[in-house]
Amino acid sequence: MWFKQSFMRLVAAALVGLLLNSCYSFKPVRTTKDNLAGVEDRYLQIIKLGSKTSDLYMSEPVVTDSTVTGRVKRYTEFKPYNKKRQVVRLYMNADFKLPQDLPQTVSLPIEEISRLEVYDFDLAKTIAFSVFGGLVGAALAYGVVMLIVLLTKGTSCPFIYAFDGADYRFAGEIYSGAILPSLERHDWLPLPQLQPADGSYKIRITNEVREIQSTNLAGLEVVDHPLGTQVLLDKYGNCHTLRNLRKPLKAWSQGVPDLLPQLAEKDSLRYLGDAVTSKKQSRDELFLSFARPPDARQAKLVLAGKNTIWLDYTMAQFFDKFGDKYQQWYEKQKQAPPSGRANWSLQQGIPLSVYVRKGKKWEFADYFNLPGPMADREMVLQLDLSGLQGDTINLKLEWGTLFWDLDRVGLDCSANEILQRQTLAPAAASDEKGRDIKAALTADDKDYYVMPETGNAAELTFAAVPARADCNRSFFLHAKGHYEVLRETSGAPDLAYLEKFRRAGRMGQFSSEQFLQLQKQIKRQD
Question: Is the pTM higher than 0.85?
Fold first, then answer.
């Protein structure tokens, strides 16, 4: 069994490595002009070979045996990242000449096309089948990778399912990263799937990996808020209304000058950080500029995304370094003060840190807790803009190499509006054997609902409350707890190596080392 799990973990890591290094991040799948099938409902960016970018885009392309024909416009008139279907880069031979008088219909000879780069995930996945072939190509389908990693996960947390009136739908994970009692924390998970059925709201909590999961509290927050607004709860449990969520004016990193296409909308384009090029790389950074309304003193930063599966793999590799002393080390960590463990995690770039530019300095503002790798979550943090000069808000987001997967970033400077918030305790709660566990989940105390085995599950029922016709309604699961990662490790611990992890940023550097090592292994198989 150990061999099987270790082998599957290696396969999963290889697949995730390919995924991170291809279509799922901001980086495209590169292919040849033989794979033009499927681009006819995309937008084509036309770039001359040797150039890095272009302001020319083709819409509604039609592919024949010899040409690709469509309407060509310049970037100033046509913004493809605002469209539902995403972009394919079309590289033309360097000596190919395009007409100067645009917009107009243009036919591109296929013989003049050098290669394609695909950013859209669904199309990239299709092309991956033809480029990589066999198992590797098929496994690039995200669902397959998720299934394999789910079977071999090194860390996780309870999975949450919300009843939508017809069936239970996966909503996300709770208190992710709380792997010690000292790291136990409150969490507020949005439940957009939840709908009343027969006068009740229903939620399931499940343990689907090898962990001991201990939930101290599980309640339902029902928030009625003004029409035309969205509401999110921050990590402190505070409600924030969103009415005017602004896109960034600019978004960039050290390696990518324009990340607006990846971060302006909730879509299939993602940003996981810059390409890993050095074992010394310890973090990824994202820089953002937003328009600042006159005299704005506070702002609400909204992030849609999740952790990467690679973070899970990296942590599992770290735990394995303790060998047969892992359990002894883990028991010792239970006695460490909560602030020390939380500070270490932050210094290692596991949470996502937020900085505000004030004058010539980046001031640390706050950080986002881990949402887990299994589903996107929308999260909010309130930022203090006092002391900020000018009409631009400049932010920096920072995390350990390849630890976060971002879909959209926005900023709302509107004032929070009046809303009605109700906190519901479970009307009933039972485990998979029908035992009553309501008392363990009703209060924040020393009584826990413990799920020690894979397959443990709880079903929570809350009495529905009447909705208001003049409001929107949002639901959040308020949970508090922690979990213990169960590991089967062996061999002598590498103490000298582990000492390095006392240094800030070492976990991100370790991630880079693991990624480059895996990349070499994959290349040797080519």
Answer: no
Asked if 472 contacts 211 with a C-beta cutoff of 8 angstroms, the reply is no
Tokens of 129: 């089948």
Cβ neighbours, 10 Å, residue 366: 18
Which long-range contacts (C-beta less than 8 Å, at least 24 apart) are formed by 272-277?
272/20, 272/24, 272/25, 272/26, 272/308, 272/402, 272/404, 272/405, 272/406, 273/25, 273/399, 273/401, 273/402, 273/403, 273/404, 275/21, 275/27, 276/401, 276/402, 276/512, 276/515, 276/516, 276/519
Place of tokens 């080392």: 513
Tokens of 144: 């397959």
**Measured distance CA(308)–CA(311) in Å, rounded:** 5
Residue type, 100: Q
Mapped onto helix, strand or coil, the DSSP state of residue 47 is strand
Tell me the per-residue pLDDT of 496-519, one tens digit each, with 9 for 90 and over: 999 999 999 999 999 999 989 887
Measure the CA–CA gap between 76 and 494, rounded to whole angstroms.
Answer: 56
Answer yes or no: is pLDDT of 118 > 70.
no
Provide the 10 A C-beta neighbour count for residue 236: 10
Q: b/e map of 374-404 (b: 16 or more CB within 10 Å)?
A: bebbbbbbbbebeebeeeebbbbbbbbbbbb
